[in-house]
Amino acid sequence: MAKDVVTPRLGWALTGSGHYFVECLTVMRRVPHLDIFVTKAAAEVIRMYRKEFELLPADTRIFKDTTASAAPVGNFYKGQYHALVVAPATSNTVAKAVCGISDTLATNVFAQAGKCRVPSIVFACDTAPEMDTEAPSGWVKVYPRRIDLENTERLKGFEYTTVVETLPDLEAAVDAALKAAGQG
Fold first, then answer.
1. DSSP state for residue 56 in the 8-state scheme
2. What CATH number is given to the structural domain containing 41?
3. Contact 109, 12 (CB under 8 A)
């Protein structure tokens, strides 16, 4: 099968969560050969963090959720990705992934990565009964529902999927994926 890229890339799906969004962008800045999959909800969040988003590496490719069939997922079949990161992942994205629903760019690339045996790292937002998260107006306390916590636990049982719950765990998992691909 012909490949469109010589060096496998890291795919990164952004969802509509602001939870650790800026910190995820900081991690993304140090990733070589990065493709970003931006859902419609993520596009709304990006508007709030435009300056940070503009600091990504020059060779970063951005795919927006503009087609019903999520055409960019075809790159997974061509061997273009060594890993996928979904971070930050909303409870909606996690729930859809657990149920096998692929109706956004993020859930579609997650499903296709699994079908192509490309390892995925998911930084789930809802991981504890009580959490602090940063909103545009400052820090707020949130209380994830039982179903949100159960879905995060269920996702941990998926093949080729690593669920991380903290920013240091995300950084370590991304570093390990880059190292395994000979890029770190």
1. S
2. 3.40.50.1950
3. no
Least confident of 62-71, 81-90, 114-123: 62-71
pTM: 0.91
Domain range holding 42? Answer: 9-180
C-beta of residue 7 within 8 angstroms of C-beta of residue 35: no
118-174 pLDDT, tens digit per residue, is 999 999 998 999 998 877 778 889 999 999 999 999 999 999 999 999 999 999 999
In 3D space, the residue among 49, 51, 65, 143 whose CA is nearest the CA of residue 108 turns out to be 65
Task: Please report where in the chains the tokens 């765990």 appear, as a residue.
Answer: 169
Q: Say how many domains are in the chain.
A: 1
Can you tell me the distance from the alpha carbon of 55 to that of 26, in angstroms, rounded to the nearest whole number? 9
d(C-alpha 114, C-alpha 57), whole Å: 27
Task: Give all strands (DSSP E) within the chain, no chain letters.
Answer: 9-14, 34-38, 61-64, 81-89, 120-124, 131-135, 138-142, 161-164
